[in-house]
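Batch manifest, entry 17 of 40.
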Amino acid sequence: MGLLTFKGGLHPYDGKELSKDQPIKEYLPQGDLVFPLSQHIGAPAKACVKKNDRVLVGQKIAEAGGFVSANIHSSVSGKVKKIENRMTVSGNKVTCIVVENDGEYEQVPFEPVKELTRDNIIAAVKDAGIVGLGGAGFPTHVKLSPKEPDKIDTIIINAAECEPYITADYRCMMEIPDQLISGLNLILSLFPTAKGVIGIEDNKPDAIAKLKKMCEDEPRIEVASLKTKYPQGAERSLIYAVTGRAINSGMLPADAGCIVDNVATAIAIHEAVTLGKPLYERVVTVTGDAIVNPGNFKVKAGTNAAELAEAAGGFKTKPEKVISGGPMMGMALGTLDVPCGKTFSSLLCFTKDEVAACEPGNCIRCGRCVSVCPAGLMPTKLSELADRGEFELFDHMNGCECVECGCCSFICPAKRRLTQSMKTGRREAMALRRRKKA
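Output type: structure tokens
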């Protein structure tokens, strides 16, 4: 199979050499653990513990607040100090459970699934609180329960890791690929007629070679080499690259016969089903030119982000820009005093804030933003509509198809804040749709 890809996209400096060869190290938190009740798409979880309760590792401390929601489990043993609003990476204060770590890490007993039926596997995934760990945070048990399961013919493992600097999934593929394959096989067991595809960008040749070797005796699994191009790992881009099928904002991957899960998500499924282990820790990349020793760490949920920077040797110089997630789609942090949740894939620390240093200029109608847009939109026109508040026209021109990947802002020679305007336009246009339906 040749290199698979999609239309549009670009090639930013990936910065992966800073951390890609650093093996995963386990980090044990030093301070209190903070567990936001909103770590996923959908309804917030509801606390099922109270102040002064003692909790154990793996104990459920908040239960799903609806079908599209997820359980939350403690990552340490200790005492519940308080339940209060705390700042999170989103920049908002949300209700959080604060646990005082006693350092003993006493855990509840884990029970693996004994009978691997469809219902039992999905129930284990739900009980474990697994969500999409690539950043979206969509509850995985919902994704694995499509309305028409017989129409699912392709299970795609998103191993592209196309965001610059992040190497957490790469290290998982290099160090625990057997768990990835096990997780994929568990998903495939839910869809008997489907095939599995592990999509890896070709800037990870050693991971491709390792997974291909390990899948030689897996008749339902193939490893696909993807062209290294951002945003190859975006769900729509990946589905198109692997299957040639296009989906839009009004469709789910299941509408194209696909289910897409991240590497870390598949590993979490393996742990939940074969070990009975809930999702309470994940691999996080800590990197950037401001970090002394960039690396990859297995981090317990609720750990303070400032501790991770120290675990990586601290700062060479005080960073001007700190990001949770990748530099293209991540969230800029105003403080490191925030907890690492389920979707916290990386902490990037840069000596310079290159975006803030650029003064936006006038559009020169060069069309570069159009050429790189993976959704085939006209960001220059749509951003103008959003800035003028013409959200109905913005929607009419398919502005809601924007995937907020940041390609347009990155490529713009005038350094216009196109993605920021597009995000605003998309949010307001969607709100306008809802008001019309009401």
